[in-house]
Specification:
Order of helices and strands: EHEHEEHEHHHEHEHHHEEHHEHHEE
Strand content: 15-25%
Shape: flat
Distance between the termini: 25 Å
Number of strands: 12
Length: about 350
Amino acid sequence: MSKLSVGIVGLPNVGKSTLFNALLKAQQAYAANFPFATIEPNIGVVPVPDARLEVLSSLYNSAPIVPANVEFVDIAGLVAGAHKGEGLGNKFLSHIRSVDAIAHVVRNFPDEEVVRAGSFSPELDLEVIQTELVLADLESMGKQAEKLKKNKDRNLQSIFEKLMTALNEGKPASSVEASDLEAPFMRDFHLLTQKPYLVVVNVSESDLSNASKIESEFAQKININPSSVVAICAKAEEQLAGFSSEEASEYLSTLGVSDAGLTRLIQKAYSTLGLISFLTAGEKEVRAWTIEKGTVASEAAGEIHADFVKKFIKADVCSFDTFVECGGWKVAREKGLVRQEGRDYTVAEGDVIEFKIGA
């Protein structure tokens, strides 16, 4: 789970390309400092903002920082009929199957110079995209119907019927409640509408200061959690990506906001997917690692190296605040503030961890 992958989808001229260009510029800056970032034409890999890493680095003589990262995939533009292969529909669907989450970009900015090309309102934009995903899932389920009839497992048959009913009613697979016995079968269908999603409302620069209100009102209109809606200005993000830190801060101040939209987009992607970060710190490097909430210590160790799962002995754990107050592992251990946890310990957000691994 070390890298989160988010597919950017949207109708023509809603700002999807502008947003992705901003991500590519951010990636280029990222790659200059962190050469392990791979650059591909349709993929932007950018760091997850985490101020804690700078603090930890200062404790270890400015040790190199390795942030967690998020991968944004620029998925082919969608048009009505994509599930039937219209436009680049097949490419659209194949790419969206490979990502962890979907970012639906919808247009909410007035610009007469940018043709709407099928975009009429943020709500209708989202409805078109979601309808195409539902229809694609229906087609996928239909292809599996004959094969599934041969399997007499009651739980499989039950979840199949529930999913078909929901999809035929235009509802996403995520709206279906599966029992503990049905859930594994549901996951095996790999349906597009099962994926968690964010809605990126592309607004004008003048609306950025009201981002929270826009997010709340839009979430209420489409009946989802406000944490899954982020209002950004793609045009402003593209400009910000080319600024120095000082220039960016000044520009954001003129817009009446403190954080860049990409920062909030990444943070909300984390929230939507139920992800957290644990930290490792030392002279060699300080690093953030991405895991799902509820991950136990032995599994978290496996993020560092697969062999660590089997060879796990224990984990030395300290909260971030305590670790910083003590100035690192040495004093934290001397004061008895480092806990020794076993393989079944549930890792918490911001834990600073040092794993003890056997030969």
